[in-house]
Amino acid sequence: MQAIIWFLFMIFYLKKTVSYFGSEYTPLNLPQMIIEKNTVVGVHYELNVDGQKLDASGEQPLTYIHGHGMMIPGFEKQLAGLKTGDSYDFTVSAAEGYGEFNENAIAELDKQIFLVDGVISTEVFEGAQLQLTNQEGQPMVGVVQSIGDDKVTMDFNHQLAGKTLHFTGSIASLRAATEEEISHGHVHGPGGHQH
Ligand SMILES: [Zn+2]
To answer: 180 CA distance to ligand 1 centroid (A)?
Structure first.
């Protein structure tokens, strides 16, 4: 009889211990992962500039490794410390976005370079986005501002230079980046490189 009581007591005690551990050590009570250097972030976002929607993640969130300059500085700065499920709404100044507008990035180019068989290329018109190569052989993307008699004015500023960027969205997933991802400088797996 006494043995049974002991046994029941043991079960009760064990159950209590288990439930104690159960309530105390569920993942919910563990400190949640936050966005910091080397976190692979899955993020839903929408970008609005001057009240217009310019860009947004699709069904799948955008993924990137935090703290490696993959995103504009202001975006990474604002996301730091957030957890999975958090939503956000912030603006990023031009200085921490795509840079201030630079007058020196507007260039007057000889119309000659745009001529094909003596006539201006059909690809060159006001508002056209063209890729040119500079003296160092680097590609530069610019927008045609105006076409004069012998000059073509082009703006080589980033199209979002000087703009305040308004981001809204939420954090879809977080995990630690692997050594390999950090050395490759990109995310592997879903939303990243498949190799
Ligand atoms: Zn890789």
So the answer is: 7
Pair of tokens at residue 112: 């000659």
CA of 185 to the centre of ligand 1 (A): 7
Measured CA to CA, the distance from residue 135 to residue 181 in angstroms comes to 35
pLDDT in tens, 20-40: 555 555 555 667 899 999 999
Phi/psi at 159 (nearest 5 deg)?
-60, -20
Q: Which two tokens stand for residue 128?
A: 């056209």
3-state SS class at 146? strand
Question: What distance in angstroms lies between residue 16's CA and the mean position of ligand 1's atoms?
Answer: 48
Q: Which of 37-46, 77-86, 118-127 has the lowest mean pLDDT?
A: 118-127
CATH topology of domain 103-155: Thrombin, subunit H (2.40.10)
CB hemisphere CA count around 38 (13 angstroms)? 9
Residue partners of 132: CB distance under 8 A and separation at least 6: 109, 139, 140, 141, 142, 154
Cα 176 to ligand 1 centre (Å): 15
Is 0.90 topped by the overall pTM?
Answer: no
Q: Is the CATH code 3.10.50.40 the one for domain 32-98+161-184?
A: yes
